[in-house]
Structure formats: C-alpha cells, structure tokens
Amino acid sequence: MKRIIVLLPLFLLLAGCSGNWGWYVVDPSTTNGANNLRFMMSGAYNTVLMSLTAILISITVGLLVALPGLSKKKRWRAVNRTYVEIVRAVPILVLILWVYYGLPQLSGITLNVFWAGVLALALSDSAFQAEIFRAGIQSIGKGQYEAAQSISLNYRDMMRFVILPQAIRRILPALGNQLVYMLKMSSLVSVIGMQELTRKANELVVSEYRPLEIYTILVLEYLVLILIVSAGVRWLERRMNSSEA
C-alpha cells in the first residue's frame, strides 16, 4: 500500500505530460483549478458526517438485533434471522431509493436527502453489525458468564460490564471495516441529490467535461479518508489491547 501511494503521484505527473490529459481543471496553481478543488472537497463534510451518523445508528440497531439471536427461545432467534436475511437481501442502492421515494408515501413523513441517506445506510449496515455482534458475544467463554452470575449480576449488567467490553475488543477490526464500507457506500446517496464527494465530482464533470482527471481526484479523496479511518481504528485497537494488558 505504501509503495502504491508513493508511486501514484509520479504516475499522475507522467500521465499529465500526455495531450489527452487535462490536469489544468484541478491544478491548484491556477484560480480555476483551485476553485474546482475546493468545490470537490466541500463535499467531504457531508460524506464524513453522514457516514459517522449512519454507523452509530447501525451499531445501536445491530446490537439490539443481535441480542434476540443469542436467546435460547426459537421465536426470538427467528426474529433475528428474519431481520438479518431480509435487510441483507436488499441492495443498498435500492434501499436508498425506497427510503427516499417510497417511505414518505407509506408513513407520510418527508425526509430530506441527508436523513434519507443516513436511514438507508444505517438499515443496510445494521444487519451486518448484528452478525458481527452476535459472533463477538458468542466468542466469549462460558466462564465469563458463570463468573458474572456468581456475583449476582443481572443480564443487563452482565452484558454491560463483563461480556460487551470483551466482545467489542474482539470485533473492533470488523467494526472498522464497516466504517470503511460506510464511507464508500455513502457515494451512492448522490443518486438522490446528496451534496457529498461523489455528487460534487459529478457536477464538476458536467461543467468541465474532464471525467478522467476529476474522478482521479475523487479516488484520492476517498483513499485519504479511508487511510485516516484505518489508522484511527488501528490506534484504538492498540489502546484497548494495552489497557487489557
């Protein structure tokens, strides 16, 4: 990965020598290029805010959906399995369109593009979060449950103070992967007019007619965001492991 990052600017510089490339549209040394770059990067705020809001909601919903899947009662496990299978079967783009155009007709509640995107992303991801939490909780040894019961902890306190802290430490890499997934899938919300990174790039392509150069910058924007998120998750993982030791 580091080698790719080092070679990419060199590749772009060499490619810019070709007459088929028009890097002037994103050249920060020119007024037009600097304005175009600012216009594209202005969508980063909405991308990050929408992704973080959606991931927080999906983690909460995913945990609530995961708990019935751990029950000894078959009907509760069926609730978990039905939700997970139905939500996972719906393509996220279809879910975005359904939430934005269909949900208001069913509920009478009108959602703006931001909250429609957040709701669709959170619903789609919550099914994956439920499976991650279920696997993480099931990976905790029975001895931990028995130790919690021996000091008379009820189910809620046992989960809160004993089981979930250990499970979260184990599933943190998977949660980080889901945040990366959320950042990438947020680009699909551009189809309903959300002014995020991809939408900004699409609008600039329409006015400048240089899709190759503009989408290349878009790739770099997502690359930088995802590298920052990955580094943050690794740092948090190290902190949690060091505190455990």
Write a concise synopsis of the structure shown.
This protein is mostly helical and 245 residues long. 78% of the residues lie in helices and 0% in strands.
The averaged pLDDT comes out at 88
How much of the polypeptide forms β-strand, as a percent range?
A: under 5%
The number of helical elements comes to: 10
**Rough outline:** flat
Distance between the termini: 30 Å
Write down the domain tally: 1
Percentage of residues in helical conformation: over 70%
- CATH classification, class level: Mainly Alpha
The radius of gyration over CA amounts to 22 Å
Oligomer: single chain
Secondary-structure arrangement, i.e. CATH architecture: Orthogonal Bundle
Q: Give the total of beta strands.
A: 0
Helical/strand content category? mainly alpha
Strand count, sense and barrel status of the largest sheet are: none
CATH domain topology:
MetI-like fold
What does this structure look like?
This protein is mainly alpha-helical. The chain has one domain (2-244): MetI-like (MetI-like fold), CATH 1.10.3720. The chain is built from ten helices and no strands. It has helices at 2-15, 31-41, 44-66, 74-89, 92-107, 113-138, 142-150, 155-185, 197-208, 211-244. The longest helix has 34 residues, at 211-244. It is flat.
Write the layout of secondary structure elements.
Elements: H1 2-15, H2 31-41, H3 44-66, H4 74-89, H5 92-107, H6 113-138, H7 142-150, H8 155-185, H9 197-208, H10 211-244
Helix pairs in contact: 2-9, 3-6, 3-8, 4-6, 5-6, 6-8, 8-10, 9-10
